[in-house]
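Re: beginner question about structure tokens

> Can someone show what the tokenized structure looks like for a real chain? I only ever see the sequence side.

Sure, here's an example I had lying around. Input first:
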Amino acid sequence: MKKEFWVDLRDYDKDAATTAIESGADAIITDDGEKIRKLGRIKTIGKNGDLIIGKDVFEIEIKDKKSEDSAVSLSKKGYVIVTTTDWTVIPLENLVAQSDRIIAGVENEKEAAMALGVLEKGVFGIVLKSKDPKEIKAVSKLVKETSGEMELSVFTIKSVSPAGMGDRVCVDTCSLMHDGEGMVIGNTSSSFLLVHAETLENPYVAPRPFRVNAGAVHAYAMMADRKTSYLSEIKSGDRVLIADADGKTTEATVGRVKIERRPLLLIEAESNGNTLSLVLQNAETIRLVKEDKKAVSVVDLKPGDKVLGRIESGGRHFGHAIKETILEK
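And the corresponding structure tokens:
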């Protein structure tokens, strides 16, 4: 799950604000949004910000059980920034267990690392209370690297067959992906395959490491927030989940989407009783990821090949995971 990174600059510092924006901070807490906006586009938090302190964002110092209960209660209204004078004492585990809106106010990278690792899933985000550009860069890097992991399963290919003509979607991101990375795409909301980015050389076209030729328009894509979106609905500015063969995940911003009519293949696979199908373009440049973490073209796939994917439980309602009886096939 993507973690939020905010920087508290109520004591305005131009160098710190510039560093925060250039380091990819999600928001700046400020008493002067105009000064921040002159430096670049970024979400502001304050009395007159995009998020309002006291309405959308609350602050509380954890001193005892009473203040802990207050933090949980406030998290039902908005995000809660929690601070403490002693990070070895704060019952952060209790807060994280009870709410997904807890943001830890920290002074340095060491405190941020501790908060991000609480109960494995960590806090929702980090607020860095430092104007040191080196600290801002270090914590930003840490937050990005702690965006999460995804458990992958091995699927056995059962069949690969022509599926006629149809509309397929290329997702062009604002990031350069590496070998082994791609998007998590599914014909249903319960089973997905890791579709490899176009990072590899081939005789027909130059590599396009920013692109995933993700599949037919109806398929689900896993987004950065772990919700799903139909490929046909993804647009510029959306954030998609990028996973590698080890299950490590990051996010990428979508720069462009291309929908074009192309010949298609139906791929059917199975993993421990879970069946899966996925419709992809019939072309050498479209690849999945094998069990040995190497890419394999869909035109070379054959029954018995083992590829990586993801099994999810339950159904989806407007992209959200829900617990209900649902059959997709």
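Each token stands for a local structural state, so reading them left to right follows the chain. Confidence is low (pLDDT under 50) at residues 316-320.
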